[in-house]
Amino acid sequence: MKIIAIGDNVVDLYPADKKMFLGGHAANTAAFATMMGLDSAYLGTFGNDARGDFARRTLIELGVDLSHSLQYDGPNAFTTMKITTGKRHQIVGEPVQELQLSRDDIAYINTFDLVYLNNESGADAFLSAITAPTIYDFSTIDDDRIFKKIAPQIDLAYLSGKAKSDDDVEALCRRLAAAGCQRVVCSRGLRGSAALVADMMSWQQALGVKAVDALGAGDAYITCFAATLYSSQKPTLDAKVSESLSHAAKFASAQVQLPGSFGHGAALIA
């Protein structure tokens, strides 16, 4: 299976630890796919500064194909992680550069088995040209206007619903399904996860692990869930969904025990 992730990469700075780690939903997804033993590519933009070099080098060392990514003249996107009263805050230091896709890029994207996009990818305008099965990360978006625009063009929708009750999660998933996407998955942190596939609601308990850093957990979850669902050899759709929920919970639980989104840190470049 070949997966391509389109959109953001962000270098996360941890001043208190004097470390930095690569993050960003799309970059994380490409990295997690390679960790699962899959062929993966990342299509996005990198700055030509030292942080951009770190971001590129990290993905290359993991085996991610960057052949269609671009480097621009300027600083790479980054955020600074600060802890106040026991809570982590992300302070945007440099935003992600706008992404433009060429005809060659679209043709390349359509050679993959799965395509990952998110609400920060800047690639919504290109959705209609993508024919490969598409995963779309809505994150915490809860807006029927956006659902109706995006849902009919995608194959699998991902949501984050940590603070929502079971009833609220099911209602949210069903609204997105009604908008046009029949496969919806929602991760909920310590409250587990849920999936609505072909009008069938399924639930998965969270695994009891001690988290070192929850950054990137959702990206790990959707990468594993999607890869498992689309490659599963289970005889029924119900069994495929159950397998996908279980594998995704285990994979995400392993990632939260690493610093940053997936480890592979370096000395802080302030």
Automatic annotation (TrEMBL):
<keyword id="KW-0808">Transferase</keyword>
<dbReference type="InterPro" id="IPR029056">
    <property type="entry name" value="Ribokinase-like"/>
</dbReference>
<dbReference type="Pfam" id="PF00294">
    <property type="entry name" value="PfkB"/>
</dbReference>
<keyword id="KW-0418">Kinase</keyword>
<protein>
    <submittedName>
        <fullName>Sugar kinase</fullName>
    </submittedName>
</protein>
<feature type="domain" description="Carbohydrate kinase PfkB">
    <location>
        <begin position="157"/>
        <end position="260"/>
    </location>
</feature>
<feature type="domain" description="Carbohydrate kinase PfkB">
    <location>
        <begin position="16"/>
        <end position="119"/>
    </location>
</feature>
<dbReference type="InterPro" id="IPR011611">
    <property type="entry name" value="PfkB_dom"/>
</dbReference>
<dbReference type="GO" id="GO:0016301">
    <property type="term" value="F:kinase activity"/>
</dbReference>
